[in-house]
Design a protein that fits this description.
This protein has 8 helices and no strands. The chain is mostly helical.
Length: 183
């Protein structure tokens, strides 16, 4: 009988590190290894530095987000218009649960710039507003993206998150704005 498939230690270590962040823990190679039930050298086999660990966490999170974004596209797959991509991001930001692990780029002030650049690189295909769009459409797409960013950040930080009862109206307002109507 073939043994059951086990998730890779690398993925398990990333999931354990994200759980550590969700629980308010401090992220280091030592704490990530402990959370994953590994030795520090075992973790360092996969992530030789804290920067490598945080970069992998960013990619791990965004890979998951992108699967959700694709599922929220009207066609279910790319290519999508800028409006469709931002609409998927809006839907995700307002209707999905977010937590402290979403703030992984901010876990180490020394890595903030490098990880911010990595985050931007990964999100750019979803959120960049093309310069060749008409000015009013660029403004609408940017405004909706910033509304979605705000909802996501409020949830992830627990700083004045949007009450659940207000989310449907917020989503409807943002959708109207996205489609060119009055907010």
């Amino acid at each position: 009988m073939k043994p059951a498939h086990r998730p890779s230690q690398r993925v398990a270590a990333l999931d354990a590190a994200l759980d550590l962040l969700r629980d308010g823990g401090h992220l280091s190679l030592e704490t990530a290894a402990r959370a994953a039930g590994m030795s520090k050298p075992g973790l360092m086999y996969h992530f030789p530095t804290k920067q490598a660990l945080v970069a992998a966490l960013v990619d791990h999170l965004i890979d998951d987000y992108e699967r959700t974004f694709v599922a929220l596209l009207p066609t279910g797959a790319e290519p999508a218009t800028p409006r469709e991509r931002i609409a998927a991001y809006l839907e995700w930001s307002i209707t999905h649960e977010h937590d402290a692990a979403d703030l992984v780029t901010l876990v180490d002030p020394k890595l903030r710039v490098v990880m911010g650049a990595r985050w931007a690189e990964r999100f750019r295909p979803w959120l960049e507003v093309p310069a060749d769009l008409p000015e009013d459409e660029r403004a609408r797409l940017t405004a909706v993206r910033l509304m979605a960013d705000g909802c996501w950040l409020a949830d992830a930080t627990c700083i004045l998150p949007v009450p659940d009862a207000d989310r449907p109206a917020l989503l409807a307002t943002a959708r109207r704005l996205l489609e060119g109507g009055a907010a």
